[in-house]
Every structure is written in C-alpha cells, then in structure tokens.
Amino acid sequence: MKPLSLVLALLICIGAPLTSLQAQDGSSRIGLGDYGQTTVLDNRFNPAISFIGDMVATWSDDEGIEAGADGFKLRGAEIGLFGAVDNAYEFHGIIFFDDEDVELEEAYVMATDWLTPTSHIKAGRFNMDFGKLSPIHDAELPMMDKPSVLQEYIGGTLKGTGAELHWWSPLGDTSLLRGSIGIFQSADSDAHVILGPGGGHHHHEDEEEEEEGPLREAGDFAINARLSTLFDVTDSATLQLGGSLMTAPERVFGVDEDDIQDINRSVMGLDLTYVDMDESNGSGFRFQAEALMNDQDEGELDDGGTAGDPSDDIFNVTNTEASGFYVMAERVMDSNNTIGFSFNQYEHAEDSAEESSDFGVFYTKKLNEFNRLRFEVRSFKDLVLEEEGVEELVDFTAVSLQWTVQLGSHGHGLEW
C-alpha cells in the first residue's frame, strides 16, 4: 500500500471512536445505572491508561552550566488517560510530574464526528498545532530536546486553553491537504528542557510579571493556524511541506488603566519533511528542516526623568525581528536502531545581533516497543550567560544518556 493511501485510511479511522461504548452483545450498556454510572466493581468503561518515565544523565565541560543540568535527572513522568465519551467525542488527559512539580499537561475533548468525517474539533488545554516538533511530547522526540530555535522563539512547545478546528482533504490521487485554525486565551510556552536556551543556558533580564488587564476583546486572543500538504514521491517516499503562524497580542498597563499598550508578538514557521521507508524491513531515511521568524515588541516604562511623577511616564516599545532554523536527519537501520544528527542556528529573540548554534549526533536503540535508550553528543556555540549583569560567550560540549520507558497505550495521532 502506498504511504499516502495508508495515511488516508488512518484519517478515516480518526473520524470513528477509539473504543465502543456498548457491551459485547451490542444491545445495551450492561451494568450501568439510571444515571450512567457503572457498578462499584465494573471497569469496562474505564479509560485507557499510559505511563511514561523519561530519565537523563548529562555531563558537560561547561563550568557555567545551570545547576542541575549536569548529572542525573528525572526529566519527567507522564500519566495519560484516554477514552471515548460516546460515539462522537473522545477525552484526553495527561498529567506530568518531575522532581519538583506536578502539572496538567493536556486535558481536552475531541469531537470526532460532529461536523464532517474529515474534520474534528479540539477544545480544552493542549499543545497548539504549530510546526512539526513543537506539538510532540518530549519523550517522543527523535532527539533528546526540542530544537534550540524552538526553545528560543516559542519556549519549545506552544500550549493554550481554547479550541482548534482541524480538517483535511485529498488533492488528486497523490496528495493530501490538511489545515487547522485555533483561538486561545493566551499562548504559553512549555518544555521540559535539559540543554539549550529553554534550560537557562542563555538568558536576559527577568521580565516583570504583567498586571492583569481588563476583559479581553476579540483581537486580544492568541491565534494559531497551520496548512500542510503531503505528496507521494515514490512508492516508499513522501514529501511534506507546511507553514504555521501564531500571533499573540498582550495587553500591558501604561500610566493608568486607561493607558493600555498592545504588545504584539508573532512567530511564523515553514517546514519540509522527506521520508523514505522500506516497510518490509523497517529501514529508511528521514530529513526534516524548519525555519522560524520571530517578531515581537517589548515595552518599558520610562519615568521621564522625574521620579515619583507618573504624569511624565512614557511607555517605550521596542520591536525586534529575529530568525533561525534547524535541520535534522535520521538513518533508520532497522526497526530498533537509528542514528542521526541535528543542527540549530538562530538569532536571539531579545537581541537579534546575538547568535547561537549547536550541532548534535545521536544513536537510538529500541530494546523493545516500550523500552528505549538514546546516546547523544551536542556541541554548543556562543550561548550567552548573564551573571551579575555580565554577559559571557560560552562554547561547550555535552554528552547525554536518555532512558525512556513506556507502559500502556499511548499515542497522539498522525504527525502533520
């Protein structure tokens, strides 16, 4: 079966519920009370449960690396709950734990058969549909961390509370078109980073916590959109081209509540993915590249030279445009062994005159379907640390060993 035909078949399956909510005799939900509850010992309608543990050991030659990055670290443990609410709705819940915190990673309802068989709606809190690697959970990445350019511009992953509409359709016999658009209360950054700017290995002055503004208007919400197309190149190879956009206005107080400044931020991404896999033995090749453009305004309140006199206060806005990219490639030797490399180069979001880059090679060994080891070496260039107001250029190399264990059912749909 051609890759595109397989994708079409999987997309059709998405429109159907994950599990049947009827009893095996197909007639009624035996064991339910008048209000839909099961009996105390009946677990037939419980959700599927998964558990993932992700452990990392890292050593580097950088004396200034953030405390805790070197050595052993539980990057995270993730509990997932997945189930069908009825024939038209699914519920997904994911809870994340690390050494210090517990957070609700995702909790959303997906309407799979509400509009059309080739569309669905997600509503709740979840990873936004932006780019190729941003929505993927960290334990499922082809390398240890999200690419550094994603960490710098969007914090690794864009997360929000809101809703997204997804749709797809065929383009002739050899291609697919898929799109999404979403609206969210805000665009939040979320990643569990070991190495890179998201881990604090270069940073600027901490931004002051913004005051909560008045009720938002339609133009004050975060908006994201993505459009991608998939082509059959040969019987075993596919090419995907995609574009993503996120814009997130933020309302910031000026002198008083009547003086409100709009601080805009937008990120645009373009991506390309080429995959050639031999289904007979599981071997193949994957190349992926993504370029990002970050445009953001930063506001600063100037007292106008008269301390204590708010009438002289001026709200200054500075615009910064920065760009960067990553490339990665994998050689899948068989279903259990993969080697690859990644490269990042990007301008800093707060100061585009500063640039950083890193290069890494990795080897992944799947001991079985639920047990994976990864060895990775990465070299970082020109990362900026700020200690007591002093910026320092740093070059260092880090060696990491990652062990990921997965129990139970786990999946996040097709990678688009």
Q: End-to-end span in angstroms? A: 20 Å
| Overall average pLDDT | 79
- Find the structural class using helix and strand composition: mainly beta
- Approximate strand percentage: over 45%
CATH superfamily: Porin
| SSE string, helices as H and strands as E | HEEEEEHEEEEEEEEEEEEEE
| Tally of DSSP helical segments | 2
Tally of strands: 19
Strand order of the largest sheet: 1-2-3-4-5-6-7-9-10-13-14-15-16-17-18-19
Poorly predicted runs of 5 or more residues:
3-31, 203-216, 253-258
CA radius of gyration:
23 Å
CATH class: Mainly Beta
Q: Using the alpha-carbon principal axes, give the shape.
A: globular
Helix content: under 10%
The major beta sheet can be summarized as: 16 strands, antiparallel, barrel
What is the CATH topology classification name?
Porin
> How many domains make up the 3D coordinates?
1
The CATH architecture assignment turns out to be: Beta Barrel
Structure description:
Strand 2 and strand 3 (89-97) form a beta hairpin. The protein is globular. Helices cover 5% and strands 55% of the residues. The longest helix is centred in the first third of the chain and has 12 residues, at 3-14. Strands 1-2-3-4-5-6-7-9-10-13-14-15-16-17-18-19 form a 16-stranded antiparallel β-barrel. The chain is mainly β and 416 residues long. The chain is built from two helices and 19 strands. The chain has a single domain (50-408), classed as Porin (Beta Barrel), CATH 2.40.160.10.
